[in-house]
Amino acid sequence: MSVRRRTTLRAVAAATVAIALAAGCSNANSGAGKGGGGGADGVLTIGKPDGPQTNNSNPFLSTSAGATLGYRYMIYEPLAMTNMIKPTEKADPWLATDWEWQSNFTKVTFTLDERAKWADGKDLTADDVEFTFNLLKKHPALNGNGIPFDGIAVEGGKVVLTFKESQFVNQNKIIQTFIVPRHIWEKVDNPETWPNRTPVGSGPYKLKTFTPQTTTLVATPTYWNGKTKVKELRYTAYNDNSAATTALATGKVEWSFVFMPNHKQLFIDKDPKNHKLWFPSGLGIHGLWFNTARKPLDNPALRKAMAMVVDRNAIHIQAQATLYPEITNPTGIPLPAGEPFLAPEYQGANTKPDVPGARKLLAEAGFTLEGGVLKDPSGKPVTLTFTDPAGWNDYITGLAIIKDSVKQLGIEAKVKTQTAEAWGVDVANGNFDATLHWTNSGATPYDMYQNVMDGAILQPIGKSSQAGNFGRFKNDEATTALKEYANAKDEPTRTKAMHLLQKIFVEQAPMIPTAAAPIGAEYSTKNWIGWPTEANPYAPPQHTQPSALEIVLNLTPAK
């Protein structure tokens, strides 16, 4: 499964979306090194299995080459840098030296770093920040996180944002917003479609060359926040996972996120000393989404019984080759990242299959097992179709395991494959029985639960759902709890709402969580050291995440 597929399909189906840089941690920025790559000449090679790219460096468009390959994070910078694998930790200052939220989270004031400059030498000021937020407010297509901006102003050299409702759940999304230069973007007629082919940001790199296969960035000698050892970044778009895996194995690519079912044989064993991978999780998950508007899946007892028998460990080992962190708690909350949010009643709970318990639950709900066939309360056999795109081997293997698991309950399921495009449309329109799909992720489990259970974004079957709730889950209690969590004025109220959301998720089973969404990567220490690791988790290692810039600034040539 490639990252690109999640990015592009999110545009179709969901419309969307550490350590401070220490002074002296790196040295001289200079012109790009010449040669084939590696620490000796200052080149870091990055690859992805996403196929040829179109020249588009608009940082706000999730389908741009800058987003797909991840190089937008090297050109444009946020106000603060968050760590997705430690979501409760305070973010590190970046373009902003400080930010202060009002106690009810309806107002935030940013104090900017006066040293900040654009790559063209002009000062980065509060006017640029004010312009950026107004740009997102005016153009919803650029506001991928759907932030409901209200007031945007500069007061005493500081930027002040006000909102009509609490933005507790959107804090990290707001402070991670890319800031763009007003003197360039104010001249753009239609920023929603602008390809931005000569991007100017405040980051340490600028675009040197672009081809559909390879994009090259070079270090900016005048970077305002220090200097970097990495002089050149080369991003190559490979046609498929196999080609990208080969490039990693041979050392042609030093940093990537590729799903490989035999990662030890295909990658690690090729250079055991230097070939590394680390796949931590944040607070997003993958899972089997049920279409709860279709019979018999409108019956929560059937959904919960299925959730009780699915073998997550088999999915972890066979479908995901142990690369994706395993889901071990029925709330779906990935651990350890989500440990602080777990309700007391689910601490110590596990996802070990319980076939007898599931059969008992079904019998109590009026289901019958006759001749090995499960029949719903009306006497109709329970038959289901599981769908996902052809070629997504981790998902297809996962569906096969789920099919075998629910067979133990007498449920006859079949696996159907589609093109990615057709699948994306069907998921958005609610034209499916059940499908493996990912959820949103954020600083708390709210984003995951809101994506799955929010009645405020519920659409009828046949009308495209762009914000989530693809399973058409309708539960007023869940919708109210989500709103209460987002708008709570104190922590006890917020905690109560979060615990209720977990209870609803477990008992109503709108989806079966199957894996934590990985924010990992494969990388080589042959030429570069300083990568994040389990022992030093200053950032998630994936190069398509906002903290990728922090990683590059932390790298130094291997001795």
Task: Compute the number of helices.
Answer: 17
The main sheet comes to: 7 strands, mixed
Which strand-content bin applies to the residues? Answer: 15-25%
Supply Rg: 24 Å
Q: Mean pLDDT score, rounded?
A: 90
Give the low-confidence spans.
1-37
The 3D shape can be described as globular
**Order of strands across the biggest sheet?**
8-9-10-1-11-20-12
Number of beta strands: 22
Determine the structural class based on helices, strands and strand pairing. alpha+beta
Task: State the helical fraction.
Answer: 25-40%
Terminal CA distance reads 34 Å
Structural features, described:
With 559 residues, the chain is an alpha+beta fold. Helix content is 28%, strand content 19%. The protein is built from 17 helices and 22 strands. The strands form six sheets. The protein has a seven-stranded mixed beta sheet with strand order 8-9-10-1-11-20-12, covered by helices on one side. A five-stranded mixed beta sheet has the order 17-16-18-13-19, sandwiched between helices. A hairpin with a 2-residue loop joins strand 14 (368-370) and strand 15 (373-375).
Record the SSE blueprint.
Elements: H1 3-13, E1 43-48, H2 65-69, H3 72-75, E2 80-81, E3 92-93, E4 96-101, E5 107-112, H4 126-138, E6 151-155, E7 158-162, H5 171-175, H6 182-185, E8 205-210, E9 214-219, E10 232-237, H7 241-250, E11 255-256, H8 263-266, E12 275-278, E13 281-290, H9 300-309, H10 312-319, H11 355-364, E14 368-370, E15 373-375, E16 383-389, H12 393-407, E17 412-418, H13 420-429, E18 434-438, H14 446-453, H15 476-487, H16 491-508, E19 511-518, E20 521-524, E21 528-529, H17 548-554, E22 556-557
Parallel strand pairs: 1-10, 1-11, 16-17, 16-18
Antiparallel strand pairs: 2-3, 4-5, 5-7, 6-7, 8-9, 9-10, 11-20, 12-20, 13-18, 13-19, 14-15, 21-22
